[in-house]
């Protein structure tokens, strides 16, 4: 216990200790924090679907009809009609033979990689991939070659170097939209490499699903290579507004996961209400309303980033609703975040190990439901606060 307290003290001393913030009331473009309304600029509820009446209605109705919980894991007695219907819908959405639900994206990535890859296999992983992919790679016991962020030429060189000693399966795994940088993976180029070297391609589209592509099918649709992806992983808790995750893939892969994937097998399945709400979310995403929400989100993002870029802020290569504003050191970052909160803007500061040393940032995320004026005022506040780092 004393050792653990010392570890916490060390985190405090170096400005690296993290604390939970409690939201009162509902999730929306503004939330109540410590008794004050603040503009929410750090939610993944990009399309505002978490509070959408159609999702709430679907969740309430399914809960009334089928119960609050599923009562068991999927292979025992916890596979309910709502799960199967959602899986069929997700497979159709991604254009694959089948799909499988998971309780979270974290469980999905760790479970999928562990179940499908082993010691003879080789996984090529982008250096900025999500923590759950990194842990999945470790659990798989496959050999892992981490390639520089989105660097297709470097990856090609590594693959060429590995080719002569190849034994098992090869996988390229990448975030679709990178969660801390807001840029897109070069999926078309990765797909070309996968074909050339006879590898598989897995995309984690936690932040692209619902948001990118003409019909919201995600990063691969946006980049015109939906058919090239072998393993489409995505989440239901971000733009889709609920919770849980999925893999859309071939029937063989899905059937194998049903037999081998530990987080799928040994975990109580999602509540039927969550599955029903996620179906309602997909119906919105694929329809006219989804198109309108995506357009709104793009417009808010453009308003926001134009002001920051004009003021000379470093936004890395962000091209999505995830907008990093580089602040470099942890102290300055957390000070900026505190000052913004005092002004009524809730923006999280992000520090190592979530991002590399020296690349601390304010990470702002836009929502379709933000008001234009709020977005512009927030951008101006960030420019002010980041601009005078010394005081406060
Ligand atoms: C959020 C996220 C996950 C985890 O999904 P959860 O459903 O929140 O557990 C996985 N991958 C990426 C890229 C994410 O951003």
From TrEMBL:
Catalytic activity: 6-carboxyhexanoyl-[ACP] + L-alanine + H(+) = (8S)-8-amino-7-oxononanoate + holo-[ACP] + CO2
Superkingdom, natural source: Bacteria
Enzyme Commission number(s) from the entry: 2.3.1.47
DNA damage as UniProt keyword: no
Domain Aminotransferase class I/classII large: 37-382
UniProt-listed PANTHER family: 8-AMINO-7-OXONONANOATE SYNTHASE (PTHR13693:SF100), CLASS II AMINOTRANSFERASE/8-AMINO-7-OXONONANOATE SYNTHASE (PTHR13693)
Protein task: Catalyzes the decarboxylative condensation of pimeloyl-[acyl-carrier protein] and L-alanine to produce 8-amino-7-oxononanoate (AON), [acyl-carrier protein], and carbon dioxide.
Protein name in UniProt: 8-amino-7-ketopelargonate synthase
The species this protein was found in: Geothermobacter ehrlichii
């Amino acid at each position: 216990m004393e050792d653990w307290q010392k570890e916490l003290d060390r985190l405090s001393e170096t400005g690296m200790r993290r604390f939970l913030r409690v939201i009162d009331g509902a999730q929306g473009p503004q939330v109540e924090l410590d008794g004050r309304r603040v503009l929410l600029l750090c939610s993944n509820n990009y399309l505002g679907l978490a509070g959408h009446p159609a999702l709430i209605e679907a969740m309430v109705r399914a809960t009334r009809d089928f119960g609050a919980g599923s009562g068991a894991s999927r292979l025992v007695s916890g596979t309910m009609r709502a799960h199967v219907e959602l899986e069929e819908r997700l497979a159709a959405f991604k254009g694959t033979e089948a799909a499988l639900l998971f309780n979270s994206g974290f469980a999905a990535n760790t479970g999928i990689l562990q179940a499908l890859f082993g010691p003879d296999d080789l996984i090529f992983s982008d250096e900025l991939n999500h923590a759950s992919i990194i842990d999945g790679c470790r659990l798989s016991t496959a050999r892992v070659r981490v390639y520089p962020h989105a660097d297709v030429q470097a990856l090609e060189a590594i693959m060429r170097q590995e080719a002569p000693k190849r034994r098992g399966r090869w996988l390229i795994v990448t975030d679709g939209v990178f969660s801390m940088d807001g840029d897109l993976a070069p999926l078309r180029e990765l797909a070309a490499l996968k074909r050339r070297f006879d590898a598989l391609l897995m995309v984690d589209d936690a932040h692209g699903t619902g948001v990118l592509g003409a019909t919201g099918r995600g990063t691969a649709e946006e980049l015109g290579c939906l058919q090239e992806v072998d393993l489409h992983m995505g989440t239901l808790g971000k733009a889709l507004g609920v919770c849980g995750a999925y893999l859309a893939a071939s029937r063989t892969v899905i059937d194998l996961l049903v037999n081998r994937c530990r987080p799928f097998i040994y975990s109580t399945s999602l509540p039927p209400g969550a599955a029903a709400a996620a179906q309602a979310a997909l119906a919105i995403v694929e329809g006219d309303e989804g198109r309108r929400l995506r357009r709104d989100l793009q417009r808010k993002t453009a308003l926001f980033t134009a002001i920051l870029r004009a003021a000379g802020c470093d936004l890395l290569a962000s091209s999505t609703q995830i907008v990093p504003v580089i602040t470099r050191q942890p102290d300055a970052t957390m000070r900026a975040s505190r000052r913004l909160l005092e002004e009524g803007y809730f923006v999280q500061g992000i520090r190592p190990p979530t991002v590399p040393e020296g690349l601390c940032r304010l990470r702002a995320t836009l929502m379709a439901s933000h008001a234009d004026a709020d977005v512009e005022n927030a951008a101006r506040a960030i420019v002010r606060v980041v601009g005078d780092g010394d005081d406060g």
